[in-house]
Amino acid sequence: MMIELSELQDAAQKAFPADGLVPDRDVSWKLIAEMGWLMIDLPEADGGLGLGRDALATILFEQGRVLSTAPLIPALLALQAIVASPDLAGREDWIGRICGGEYVPLNLLPGSASVQADGTLAGRITGVFEADMASHVLAGLPGRYVLIPNDAPGVTVTERPLWDRSRRLFDIALDGFRPDPALVLAEDEAAARVHDRISPAAMVALAADSLGGASAALDLTVEYLKTRRQFDRPLAMFQALKHRCADLKTHIASAEALLWSRCIDDAASNIDLGAMKAMATDTYFMVVEEMIQLHGGIGLTEEHQSHLFLKRALLNMQLCGSADNWREAAGRQALAKFAG
Amino acid sequence: MTSEAHLETLRGEVRGWLDVHAPKGWRNARQSHEQFAADQRAWFLKLVEGGYAIPHWPAEWPGGGRSLAEQKVIYEELTRADCPRLLLSFVSTYHAAATLLECGSEAQKARYLPAILKGETWCQGFSEPNAGSDLAALKARAVRKGDVYVVSGQKVWSTMAQYADKCLLLVRTGADGPKQAGITFLLMDMKAKGVTVRPIHQIQGDEEYCEVFLDDVEVPVADRVGEEGAGWAVAQATLSSERGLTLMELSYRMRGAMHYIASLIRKNGLENDAGVLRDFGQLVTRADAACAIADRFLANRIAGIERVGDASLVKNTYSRVLREYSALGLRLGRMDEQYLAPIVFGDLNTGNFMADFMNSYAWTIAGGSEEVQRNIISERMLGMQREPKGWAA
Ligand SMILES: Cc1cc2nc3c(=O)[nH]c(=O)nc-3n(C[C@H](O)[C@H](O)[C@H](O)COP(=O)(O)OP(=O)(O)OC[C@H]3O[C@@H](n4cnc5c(N)ncnc54)[C@H](O)[C@@H]3O)c2cc1C
Q1: Which atom of ligand 1 lies at the shortest distance from residue B126's CA?
Q2: Domains along the sequence of chain B with CATH
Q3: Nearest atom (ligand 1) to Cα of B131
Q4: Are the beta carbons of B168 and B238 closer than 8 angstroms?
Q5: CATH number of the domain at A191-339, please?
Q6: What is the pLDDT of residues A212-271, one digit of tens each?
Q7: CA distance A100 to chain B (A)
Q8: pLDDT tens profile A78-88
Q9: Interface of A with B (CB under 8 A)
Q10: Looking at the domain that runs over A112-187, which CATH code has it been given?
Q11: Identity of the highest mean pLDDT range in A136-140, B67-71, B247-251
């Protein structure tokens, strides 16, 4: 397994070289589909590679390093929801289409919708990445997972421009939308089961993206300090700056160690994984905050790459549950574990 | 048998053995240094007998030759059974053993290693008043006279030296060349004439380390490890020994000690205080990360893919989380922690948070301070340029 992970890592680095930050989205997406990354953790029985979450994390870590523009995470999560829905009509067909590159995202922010008197759905789904290239959206709503064709009557897709330059986010408004019963994946208890199935992958994915980004941001910062000269010496020679970089490295290393151990730990609860994600996004934030400061004035220019990391890190913090909530849940869980 | 099943069998064995032999009530009994030393000696010999004292030694030793995974199981069970940490025999089983196994002569190994298992204890005489982080600046002088070295000087912060039978001693034998070049490594008998040991009173009321005064102490040349002037390289073997398993054991013990914080939360009726729960949740997550990075480090070490600086990442992670742990305990313990309370000699994570907090500095200062680790990480791992040498006052 070690070998396979390093092979995956090599492949990911070759496909997306470190000097190509924020690569073109559509080209990236095609490449990702060709590389088979959508099938990475798909069970072999469903035609996938059947690799573990560590394989998923390896790819997403590398995607995070280059500030990937392709919506691999929402697509992988939608695929998992479909895999976890045995009753979905044409399930195999959907899996094949998505693995082949048809883009169907899961929303990564909450949505809400209510059934109207006439049986139509009204509501709003937020946090849909790159919806302009999607055929359908797999909407995770309270008590319901449903596939919504983007061009169906009663569906309006609106871009919500972001500070983050590496991704595009959309809202989907539903008004008079009549869901096709054949496209409903799960309702009520079944929906809760689907949620529990995909939530761990979401946490691992965001943590990996964040720590990949954090490590690339630190590398770039250290590189800059080594070459930028002031007071007749490289800035990297100043111990005040060295120690800050060393602390960032330590934070990244321990958050990474937690990621690699928890992502393959079957005993890890959703809360354990959520707290891990919170640690990863906090670490990303800590690193990008320092990245700008340690670059001085150039770090505040649009032309420089630092802001791209900053903005992505800040958006990651908002996805799939807040750090405050996850930490509180982890505290409660630990309290129960150490019962008096 | 699968390795998984094998580990579970071992776990069962260790647990069964501990059910019978694990010391109970030792914290309450530890009210004096004498009691501390006596219970440490007894527990160490008991562990030797059970085969669990030196799982990290090579296989030819009884109880040695355990794989990383097995060692982990043993430490997990010792922690779970709340056994006392081995402090008195720590330098013997790690530092002395690693030094002898890696650099000692056959005669030295035969003489000193078996004695360790019979209870002989060692201390480490490296630091001096003017050689702390800059260890190579040490000055204790050894002059060769025939078959012996005659040693004079002062050592400081020597842990458990007041109980030690032997000492891993760094001395200066040469003054030429770079300061590392004139250092020699000796094995000194603490009972030898001219050795004076004075315990140092610490801020938390314990006396874990000592000053050691050396006044024309004779050390046989046969007790020199490596060549004269090659002591710096030998000392690296000594120092790296504590970087591996120690931090894994300590990290697991720290995680196990979270129950003290949980009790304080309950005691103060803060079970639903979101702010406190968040801090606790963050702490346990960081403690888990400390365990994870220690595990990963050991796995890499066994696989031979350890990188320079990896140990520093582990140490700085552990020592910071330990500080945060004890600081949270102090905060939640409120005024209770301010009233003087008895300490448990030689223990860590005792739930006396004032003492635990003060104790946590041991890990940010000893074994290469937090700042020195940062230098290693930034210069040797991240490749940031070193400052030019040659500052003169
Ligand atoms: C609990 C404990 C047990 C110990 N046990 C032993 C033992 O058994 N045997 C033994 O020989 N020694 C032992 N030591 C000594 C230990 O190795 C030294 O305390 C340590 O190396 C630091 O040296 P120092 O105390 O002289 O501090 P100093 O080196 O004087 O450091 C003072 C401060 O300056 C900082 N500093 C120093 N150099 C630098 C630098 N280059 N860059 C940035 N900051 C720097 C340090 O981090 C520290 O914050 C022990 C210490 C402790 C606390």
Answers
A1: 11
A2: 4-86 (no CATH), 122-229 (2.40.110.10), 243-381 (1.20.140.10)
A3: 26
A4: yes
A5: 1.20.140.10
A6: 999 999 999 999 999 999 999 999 999 999 999 999 999 999 999 999 999 999 999 999
A7: 36
A8: 999 999 998 89
A9: 222, 225-226, 233-234, 236-237, 239, 241-243, 245-247, 249-250, 253-255, 257-258, 260-262, 272, 275-276, 278-279, 324, 326-335, 337-340
A10: 2.40.110.10
A11: A136-140
